[in-house]
Task: structure prediction
Amino acid sequence: MSFTTRQSRKGEISSWKAYAPAHSSKLAIEAVDRVMRGEGAPSPIYEGEDSVIAYMLDGKNGKYEVPLPAVGEPKLAILETYTKEHSAEYQSQALIDLACQMRTQISNWDEVKEIIIHTSHHTHYVIGTGAGDPQKMDPKATRETLDHSIMYIFAVALQDGAWHHVKSYAPERAQRQTRWLYGTK
Result:
């Protein structure tokens, strides 16, 4: 079992975040393998004073309900998930689309003096200036950090008119001067 808090994705983000999907998949495979070999698990795992709920959610008296479909009812929970079109942090998806559309309306880049983005409280504090992470505006930051920088993501999508899972994060792209990010043209 493994839990990762949001702290692992704050400040200078290491390769830890990049490996998170593979790590969770590895743990799932190991868990299935152990069950197939007859291994048991801590019981109860979710309830009790030293449980998952107590430590990670609401304290020892916490309660967490997972609604399951009734017998014979279709399993439609996958329809309630949110997939990402672009390989960037979830809150930046609509902003990438907006930047790509706005690009067609800019005929003279020298006329653009500043860009102000008004967004949700959560987005501001996770991937915006409210996060207080100076690394989010560092052209030498890692892909994992740039993935969580609305300033970087919006500027690149606006300039390039597209978002690419490799090219948009490439060091030569990240270090290409953008006055909205680094104060120079």
In short: The mean pLDDT is 84. The radius of gyration is 21 Å. Residues 90-182 form one domain.
